[in-house]
Design brief:
Helices cover 46% and strands 12% of the residues. With 334 residues, the chain is of the alpha/beta class. The protein folds into two domains: 2-68; 129-331, Vaccinia Virus protein VP39 (Rossmann fold), CATH 3.40.50. It has a seven-stranded mixed β-sheet with strand order 5-4-3-6-7-9-8, sandwiched between helices. The chain has a two-stranded antiparallel ribbon with strand order 1-2. The longest helix is centred in the N-terminal third of the chain and has 58 residues, at 30-87. The protein is elongated and about 115 Å long. Bound molecules: S-adenosylmethionine (SAM). S-adenosylmethionine is lined by residues 125-127, 153, 155-157, 160-161, 184-185, 188-190, 223, 250-251, 269-272, 275.
Length: 334
């Protein structure tokens, strides 16, 4: 601040000094002396004014730094609140839902929900806190590094993770030209096609066409959430707008329609070999370098097999990083 002040003073002082030496060079007269005194008073007033302005600028700079710190803290609090609300870990009583095969016996209900090892009754996402933190890491990294492209999740169930993606965009000031795509059948898992995708054989019992039912009729209880309900969940968070795009239908039909878009973050959560492979085939070629591919279901053999096959067939060598007990991700390098 002293340096800044001195710079101003030196700049303002130059004409004054020239005036003084001109007067000194001229004949010494009372009129010129009076002019010199008056010029000195003016210079001193100007110095005081500069001092006040420099102090004011320092206060404004400090205020701006405080406002930035406050806005960072507000953003952090909002994102934490979103995680707690979407996973329902914020609320009591606990959200005790169905325990999937992956729930370890030694986990209590609270741990199961935090780790996303259950199928919750109320939470808008079945993933746990670490997987939301991974989404946050991926999105904040691509925003910081200006990696181009949109965000997509294939397999959204009640919409919690795509709501989180939209919330992160909002929290970061809605950078232009970023959309959030939410792909789902909105009628649950497909009927497993083990003939074409043998890895999906363990799912054949799910939604299995039974005698007397139409062959494509699904068991509505298995992960079926209507588009209307997902939209309502977005609206509950005030996050439903034209940056959110639903891709309704089976991945094999919907994902080819967005093949030409570029992606910054792709999150796969469709469980099956077929669902995972459909998503990789249609989306991965347009994942930007520096973008992220996240796989929620690496703990499921069928999904893992699809990821391994795709990586092998396409020579993908980026190291796979672990998120938690099931999810993995990698960052595209080439
Ligand atoms: C495990 S849930 C997704 C969980 C969700 N990501 C969350 O945050 O809670 C799997 C979803 O994938 C959808 N799905 C799976 N395979 C699909 C396919 N081939 N086409 C369309 N939707 C599919 C199901 O309808 C279901 O909503």
């Amino acid at each position: 601040m002293t340096q800044e002040r001195n710079r101003y003073i030196v700049a303002l002082g130059a004409p004054w000094r020239r005036g003084v030496s001109a007067i000194r060079r001229s004949r010494d007269s009372p009129r010129l002396r009076e002019q010199l005194r008056s010029a000195t008073r003016q210079r001193d007033r100007a110095r005081r004014r500069i001092d006040r302005l420099v102090e004011r600028a320092a206060v404004l700079r400090a205020d701006r730094a405080d406002a930035r710190a406050q806005s960072d803290e507000n953003r952090r609090l909002y994102i934490e609140l979103l995680k707690g609300a979407l996973t329902h870990t914020l609320y009591r009583p606990l959200d005790i839902g169905a325990r999937s095969d992956y729930v370890k016996r030694e986990l209590d209900d609270e741990q199961a929900r935090v780790l996303g090892r259950d199928w919750p009754q109320f939470a808008q996402t079945m993933v746990g806190v670490a997987r939301l933190e991974n989404i946050q890491h991926c999105i904040e990294t691509v925003l910081r590094d200006n990696v181009p492209g949109d965000f997509i999740e294939t397999g959204i169930w009640r919409g919690g993770t795509v709501i989180f993606m939209r919330g992160l965009l909002r929290a970061h000031g809605d950078p232009p030209e970023r959309l959030v795509f939410a792909a789902d059948s909105f009628q649950g898992l497909p009927v497993a096609n083990a003939e074409e995708y043998p890895a999906d054989a363990p799912f054949e019992h799910i939604n299995k066409p039974r005698a007397g039912r139409r062959p494509d009729a699904l068991d509505p209880s298995l992960l079926a959430v209507s588009r209307r309900d997902v939209q309502r969940n977005f609206e509950l968070y005030g996050l439903y707008d034209d940056r959110v795009r639903f891709l309704e239908g089976w991945f094999r039909d919907t994902l080819p329609t967005v093949r030409d878009r570029s992606w910054a973050v792709i999150r796969l959560d469709g469980d099956f070999y077929e669902s995972t492979m459909d998503a990789l085939t249609n989306l991965y070629p347009n994942l930007s370098v520096g973008g992220f591919l996240v796989v929620d279901d690496f703990a499921i053999g069928a999904c893992r097999e699809a990821v391994d096959d795709y990586r092998r067939e396409h020579g993908i060598e980026e190291p796979i990083r672990r998120v938690d007990w099931t999810a993995v991700y990698w960052r595209r390098e080439t």
